Amino acid sequence: xxxNVCVFISMNGKIFLNHVQNKYLSSLPACGWPLESVSKQKIxxxxxxxxxxxxxxxxxxxxxxxxKVKKGLISQSEASRNAALMRxxxxxxxxxxxxxxxxxxxxxxSKFEKEYFKGLENFFLWEKKYSxxxxxxxxxxxxxxxx
Length: 147
Prior knowledge:
mainly alpha
């Protein structure tokens, strides 16, 4: 317990936040919303926007399914079956699916950004409010390496 307290106190708030985020983003195999990073979702959304124009929507959806395979959420055969079903659809159905994914992505991304930035604001307000207590605790636990 003392070691965990020492790690928290001795780290700068931003470093600690990055440490926790990296730990949970990398160790949870099926983590999705809200644990995926905003930048990863923005990259996916940008690919989605470009995919209809250049005809790569089916490939993008297959790549998305392959990510789910890596996380253990679906099997490889399911991903291949989904891709085959997508390729067999007429273009108007593909466009309708594209619009659905696009609208859903916009909604998810905006909600996630609001929650993310609200959480960051709360974290930094807490850090500012208790900065003197944290500094005192840092001084008090400055010998943390001695268990």
